[in-house]
Amino acid sequence: MNQEYKKEQWPQGIKAALIDMDGVLYDSMPFHAQSWHQLFLDLGVTNSNPDEYYLYEGMKGSDTIGLILKRELGKDTTEQERNEIYAHKTELFSHCGEAPPMPGAADMLKALKDKGLQTVLVTGSAQKSLLNNLNRDYPGYFPKERMVTALDVKNGKPHPEPYLRGLQKAGVDASQAIVVENAPLGVRSAKSAGCFTIAVTTGPIPREAFEKEGADMIFPNMPTFAKWLNNI
Ligand code: CA
Asked: What is the CA(123)–ligand 1 centre distance, in A?
């Protein structure tokens, strides 16, 4: 059941679109979920469930590691340990192969550009492979000075810092930017930064989770969102 949004619901005076990467620009979340699952199995977490990791999407990897190891094994970890474990997760992810561009994402970017919006990447990822692919798959949309990655922030999503940095890089106020997200914690981060936030539910998480986080619009997939943008 998809709600029909009216043209008038699109906010006025928007100058920039802050765009998440995994699950928005790339269909990489199944690979991430599988890599997290394998990682925690390797670390002795026996009741790991791949679907759970969609809930933590957007968080810095080291934060997810700290959370699961504390909860499941009662284990405290140092930042260095978490970083080493995260390096292993990165390796598992790289073995999954190359994540394909998300269908409809290129159309969405073109529609945003046609409206005169500048595009800024805001990702919790530090995966070099994906970051390098951006230029190839979406040329011209994300020059280096308009990218916020895990390496640029102290606090990951759901903290507002990543999106606040994105606003800074775009040189606009929160009232002049929209955010495109696919994860509940990403929506929380964007809303905390004060942005009009569009959730595209590209994974297994139900629509209600995004309503709860205060998403301003929710679309079931990227082609539907791109088509809607082209019609307003
Ligand atoms: Ca995401």
From this structure: 7
Report how far ligand 1's centroid is from the alpha carbon of 100 (Å). Answer: 14
Whose CA is closest to 181, among 212, 147, 219? 219
Residue with tokens 């499941």: 72
The C-alpha atoms of residue 112 and residue 106 are separated, in whole angstroms, by 10
Residue 101 and residue 73 in contact, taking contact as beta carbons nearer than 8 Å: no
Reading the block at residue 145, the tokens are: 């000075």
CA atoms within 13 A on the CB side of 135: 9
Which tokens sit at 225?
């969102």
Distance, in Å, from the CA atom of 171 to the CA atom of 186, rounded to the nearest integer, reads 21
Output the CA 58–ligand 1 centroid distance in Å. Answer: 5
Residue where the block lists tokens 């930042």? 79
Q: Token pair for residue 59? A: 């968080």
Burial class (CB in 10 A: 0-12, 13-18, 19+), 156: buried
pTM of the model: 0.90
- pLDDT single digits (tens) 35-48: 999 999 999 999 99
Residue among 61, 57, 146 nearest 138 (CA)? 146
Using the mean position of ligand 1's atoms as its centre, give its distance from the Cα of residue 192 in Å: 16
Q: What distance in angstroms lies between residue 54's CA and the mean position of ligand 1's atoms? A: 9
Give per-residue pLDDT as tens, 90-126.
999 999 998 999 999 999 999 999 999 999 999 988 7
How many Å lie between the centroid of ligand 1 and the Cα of residue 166? Answer: 15
